[in-house]
Amino acid sequence: MTAPAAAVGNEQRDSAAFDVERLRACFPILERNVRGHRLVYLDNAASAQRPEVVIEAVSDCYRTYYANAHRGVHALSEQSTDAYEAARGKLARFIGAPDSHEVVFTRGTTESLNLVAQSYGRPRLEPGDEVLLTEMEHHSNIVPWQLVCEQTGARVLAAPLTDDGELDLDRFAGMLNERTRVVALAHVSNALGTVNDIPAVVELTRSRSDAAVVVDGAQAVPHMAVDVAALGCDFYAFSGHKMYGPGGIGVLWGRHELLAAMPPYHGGGAMITRVTFERSGYMAPPQRFEAGTPAIAPAIGLGVAVEFLESIGLERIERHEHELLSHTMEVLNDLPWVNVLGHASNAGPVRAAVVSLVIDGAHPHDVATILDEQGIAIRAGHHCAQPLMDRLGVPATVRASFGMYNTHEEVDLLVSGLHEVRRIFG
Ligand SMILES: Cc1ncc(COP(=O)(O)O)c(C=O)c1O
Predict the structure, then answer these.
(1) Between 20 and 30 A from 411 (CA), which of 7, 74, 283, 418?
(2) Domains of the chain
(3) pLDDT, tens digit, for every residue of 49-72?
(4) Residue 420 near residue 374 (C-beta atoms within 8 A)
């Protein structure tokens, strides 16, 4: 089986400087040329790239020991099961979960949030109950709640943002009441980079309602140390592909007593104790929520991605990305034709390294196309956050989102790319 994570991580942690070039060398795709230029990958909020150790762990699983997990007594099945469950343990440690049985493997954040909506929300919500979201949510933290509200007669409300793109905590508090059953919000906004103060949200929620607090952590876990026990929330969802892991795998963390009281989300093999045509008994969490053959190799790869992140150190990653953000904001603030959205302070924990902007006279898709010609990958569009775009009064933005392997030189290339846009569009 593959060695746990790149030695580069330990060396990085030991040395004072963050050696981004050594780190980049762990990611084969960053060597690529795109349209005749060295790839500048600034679309990490959509999906990050994978280090060699993750690619190797997945291929090693398929090459040397893959079999179905939790099913056979033969050697390969035992080895696959052990590796799959070891990955669960790594994920639990990574997010500070008190117990690895609280870690459910899903296909990603979207499935995790649908699972909570259907298994936690649906049996509890009644007509007139409220699910409180925020105006900055990704569609995957809106639509599952709309679906469950249609099924139950409950309703979705959204707490407003300030003009700086931050959650207005006073107005949020004012919307909490005894009918609030669920509060669901992003830890970090995928479109603005705003970091929500989850402990404050939890405290307010607990003081005014019995609601469960569901956190969409998709944009947080690759960029900052997350400890679910310290956050105090009830559920935490995230995706492997945004944290340098494989696609098709993600996590739902939930408090054990809540998971244990929830019915299954999907039914099938591997989640039952006994099946007759009259009824079926269900296993305890997490197996209860993992019907069918799981994504075994991706889960194992995700465990290795987590070790990789830990070997670099989340505090160091956060610091490096924050420096990239400060650099970007400094330069962009001098360009009057660039309008950065969500002027949430770029200091400390209120903003992650995501920059959404619009350019006078240039449609975001044209900006993306011109940048692409220079090998620069950014995202243009509504970022699956149309209600947020409505709040900001724009149909779409250009979004540059940084990862741990991005460099100051790449910030400069992005900025010269924007100057080229300006030149073309006058
Ligand atoms: C904040 C946020 N939530 C949820 C999602 C959905 O993640 P996935 O598509 O991996 O399920 C994303 C993906 O862009 C996101 O940025």
Answers:
(1) 7
(2) 14-43+313-425 (3.90.1150.10), 58-310 (3.40.640.10)
(3) 999 999 999 999 999 999 999 887
(4) yes
Residues touching ligand 1 (Cβ under 6 Å) are: 45-46, 108-110, 138, 140-141, 186, 190, 216, 218-219, 239, 384
Q: Indicate the pTM of the whole model.
A: 0.95
> Which DSSP letter does residue 278 get?
S
- The CA-based angle 242-387-223, given to 5 degrees, is 25
Q: Whose CA is nearest to atom 9 of ligand 1?
A: 110
What does DSSP say about strands 212-216 and 235-239: parallel, antiparallel, or unpaired? parallel
Checking 61-68 for CB contacts under 8 A at 24+ apart, the result is 61/296, 61/297, 61/300, 61/301, 62/297, 64/1, 65/1, 66/296, 66/297, 68/293, 68/296
Q: In the block, which residue shows the tokens 């790839």?
A: 39
Amino acid 345: pLDDT: 62
Query: Which two structure tokens, joined as six digits, stand for 239?
Result: 């995706």
Of 255, 254, 256, 194, nearest in space to 45 by CA: 194
